[in-house]
Amino acid sequence: MAKSTVTQFLSESDAAAARVEATYHKVTWRLMSFIFVCWVLNYLDRVNVSFAQFHLKQDLGLSDAAYGLGVSLFFIGYILLEVPSTLWLKKIGARLTISRIMILWGGISTAMAFMTTPTQFYVARILLGAAEAGFWPGIILYLTYWYPGARRARITSRFLLAIAAAGIIGGPLSGWILHNFVDVLGYKNWQWLFFLEGIPALVMGVVAFFYLVDRPQEARWLDDEQKRIILDALAADRAEKKPAKHTRHQLLVALKDPRVYVLAAGWGTVPLCGTILNYWTPTIIRQAGVSDVLNVGLLSALPYIIGALGMFAVARSSDVRLERRWHFFLCTAVGALGGFLLPVLSGNTAAAIICLGMISISYFGAAAIIWSIPPAYLSDDAAAAGIGAISSLGQVGAFCGPIALGWIKTMTGSLAIGLSAIAAIVMLGGLAVLIGVPANTLREHAEEHS
């Protein structure tokens, strides 16, 4: 009789676990597949401007320093509007926010096809940053409405895989467009690059308005039991946190928390790695001895593949162990080593690709881990402001990095000094999170199936 009872209990437990997994599989397939495509389109912009760099220098008269400035100007509007956009998402919902962001950035990206002067390039980059502001932290906040902490690093890694996919797809695609659209219908190949990679964002922005839902309670494609599974898991997460004092000044509460600045320092290392990967990979591969634009595009996909594989392994390990700090630090250490070695080995194509792959592991892996930390200690009321503040403050590195690299390249003819400086900062950012965020402040709830 006892054996029968145990068997029945195990059977019921397995059935409950299966229902939980089926529920999250449904949510992931429905939401993440759409968000994934949106994020791929977002990062195609980061990839295409690096491939257009050579042609923009010729047709718009840009130097390396001017190109670096233009890349960095993107982050002025981005930084200023990150927090307001994220708070606005909490007020009006993800559906309206994501739709608005995508329509604006798609329109501006498409309009960049008609630039004729460096000033227009600068203005377009500022407007593009303002349009995209809030997309990344908004999605991170949106995921907290659906997934508990024990799943968050893995689901964030799937979201970040879109960046890798953009690099894997975008490099060869950009190379193909530049190779095959020379003077088609009287337009230059780089004009077609911006036009063909901007229109899809406009279309997806319209679709987002009709496709997305803001909260699990509103999802008609979930039954009552599936909604309960999600809401109970989120409630268990909230129970692990200290109750927050209710305040209308959410941003002030977040800015008074020293851990916000520690995490901003850690997050700031990620866009620094992204500066190398997204804006200078084609240049680095060219300097390694590859001249054909199509081959440059194909080879540029390899670091993103390495980064994606590393990210999946790190994110899964982090979620299984519910450990974030050491996983983040190890990612930054790998990226820093890649940055230090790249100037030394840049003359060898295979070695340069491996070093870029190490930087890519840091870029994707560290990003997947660090965004599982704020929801683990910030209250629900403070989460929107805290995530927006961390994202915004961390983007200072993204603003300074391209300017510094472009200026150093112009002055010295080499990226060596800039790459080494970025590597050192990345290592310090990893140490800041490891030391500055005590392990006992991260309260996450291991999943239970009922």
TrEMBL record:
SUPFAM superfamilies, alphabetized: MFS general substrate transporter
Principal localisation: membrane
Membrane topology: Multi-pass membrane protein
InterPro entries: MFS, MFS_dom, MFS_trans_sf
Entry keyword annotation includes Metal-binding: no
Gene Ontology CC entries for this record: membrane
Transmembrane parts of this sequence: 27-45, 65-89, 101-121, 127-147, 159-178, 190-213, 293-314, 326-345, 351-371, 383-408, 414-437
Positions of the Major facilitator superfamily (MFS) profile domain: 31-441
Molecular function GO labels: transmembrane transporter activity
Keywords noted in UniProt: Membrane, Transmembrane, Transmembrane helix, Transport
Subcellular location: Membrane
Protein name: D-galactonate transporter
Species of provenance: Caballeronia glebae
